[in-house]
Fold:
Amino acid sequence: MILYTIVMRYLNALNKIDGLGCKKLKQLMNFFGTAEKVWAASQAELTKSGIGESVAQKIVDQRPNINPDEAWTKIEKENITVVTIQDGQYPILLKQIPDSPYLLYMKGNLDCLNMPLVAVVGSRKLTEYGSRVARTFARDLAKNGICVVSGLAFGIDAMAHLGALDAKGKTIAVLGNSLDSESISPRSNFQLAQEILENGGLLISEFPIQTTAATWTFPARNRIMAGMSLGTLVVEAAEKSGSLITANLALDYNREVFAVPGPVFSPQSIGTHKLIKAGAKLAACSADILEELKISEAPQAKVETANLELSEEEKNILSVLSHEGTYIDRITKLTKLETATISGTLSLLEIKGLVKNVGGQQYIKISN
Structure:
């Protein structure tokens, strides 16, 4: 254990060298054999490894400003586990990609990595449609034993994590920043990150602590999500959405790519429709994904609407609702009920979990 800690603290210190990168780190480890030897090597010795003079110079220049022991102490205080690509806890599929991280930082339940993993990604500027689809798909996947992987970002990512939590399932957040509490981003999703941990989920990053999110960190994060998962589901994506990067990486890694079709006039459907045209598998429900991945659906204990005690007014209103928003004035017109009766009945149906107010006086029917 002491030897392992020494090895990891020097690996972590090397990972803090700006400009080193995972490929160069692998190259150094293959050449020197141990991280301690790399840390102690001269510039000439580092250059002999084949990493190039400029990278060797960066290591020599930055080493004096990094204390391996102090950096490791901070990791321990944050309850972060660090694994290398040689460790058994490293995600199996992630090892197969050509640009796999040499080090991964993890916080939470590492058993999540033993489950089938499916990434759910999409636009930060989600629509109400995208929100419902992402949360529903993630919930259904989690109910069927899938661990939902996403990036904790605004929009579809957050809905994917919440959907898995709705099902009391497992979810993994792969971050474009480090795992220390101060660096979790976006800050508005900090509580969501805590809920993931409290419910047996996992946070993953390749970045040493005190690394803040930046433009370049998100494509790096996306390759981890795509690489560690059996498949990637894209829910909503504009024409130049970052989630298309994840989908293309998944294709490069020979993983399955699924896309949910959306309203033809929505800008957030352009990317998903292009994916479908290019050969991504159209996913109309979670069963489409499970079937393609050859994962059996778990038996579901469904509560049918017919088995609930519903009044005639409730049945009348449910008969005119769908999964698309219906304005209350149209409900009034179709049901021929009084407005006051409709308002009260809709409130009861919401309590029973059969309808949802999606804003703007619109209501949708919720599947059981």
Summary: Residues 301-306 have pLDDT under 50 and may be disordered. The chain has 16 helices and twelve strands. The chain has three domains: 2-77, 110-292, 305-365.
